[in-house]
Amino acid sequence: MTAFASKATFSAAVPFAAIVAETPSHVAAREALLDAAMGPGRTRKSSEAIRTGRLPAEGLAFSALAPDGTLVGTVRLWNIAAGTRNGGSVEALLLGPLAIAPDRQGTGLGGLMMRHAIAEAARLGHGAIVLVGDPDYYVRFGFSAAQTGALAMPGPFEPHRLLALELSALALDAVAGLITATGRFALDTVASPPVVAKAA
């Protein structure tokens, strides 16, 4: 199993308070941030078919807040079956979307949020994280397409952008098939209480 640290270098030029567990009060600001950072096409992505109507994985939805309480970053992880192995589904997480407010991009906040999310997923005992994204960006966090060649997303996707990170050895060994949602439906439960992670 790989060890992960939740701290990362962060530019002191941009005020930043903390990464906290997402709460219902963040929803409107999160949706506005996603629209600003990713544009209207974000809802047509194949990952959205997995997230729609579901709750994020327990304890794995995070908001970055500026000192005045403004939401400036968001990242969430979702319970999935990463295909099958020997006839049984393989539990994993789907990461996304990761979004940073336009005026905070390039400051290191995205990296800080990624490392925090990975560390928390490992701490909670998850075996692997899958995402669809830019390989040049996510390779720094250990993601690659080495274990995803036989996996598929629902709907159109670019295979070279389907990446994974194993948090425990061989978690995705010999997996194949369609990635499907396994998480709780949105009406099943309420959000978890906040957990704060201070920036370095």
Identify low-pLDDT runs. 1-13, 189-200
CATH fold group: Aminopeptidase
Cα Rg: 16 Å
Number of contiguous helices: 4
Percent of residues in β-strands: 25-35%
Helix content: 10-25%
Principal-axis shape equals globular
**The named CATH superfamily:** Gcn5-related N-acetyltransferase (GNAT)
Mind summarizing the main beta sheet? 10 strands, mixed
Distance between the termini: 24 Å
How is the secondary structure organized here?
Elements (H helix, E strand, L loop, with lengths): L17 E4 L5 H12 L7 H6 L9 E5 L5 E15 L2 E8 L3 E2 L8 H15 L4 E5 L2 H4 L12 E2 L9 E5 L9 E6 L14 E3 L2
Describe the structure in brief.
InterPro entries: Acyl_CoA_acyltransferase, GNAT_dom. This protein is an alpha+beta fold. It is 18% helix and 28% strand.
Explain the overall architecture:
It contains 4 helices and 10 strands; from the N terminus they run βααββββαβαββββ. It is α+β, with helices and mostly antiparallel strands and 200 residues long. Strands 1, 2, 3, 4, 5, 6, 7, 8, 9 and 10 form a 10-stranded mixed β-sheet that branches. The radius of gyration is 16 Å and the shape is globular. The model is unreliable at 1-13 and 189-200 (pLDDT under 50).
List keywords for this structure.
Aminopeptidase; 10 strands; disordered N terminus; ten-stranded mixed sheet; globular; 28% strand; disordered C terminus; single chain; alpha+beta; 200 residues
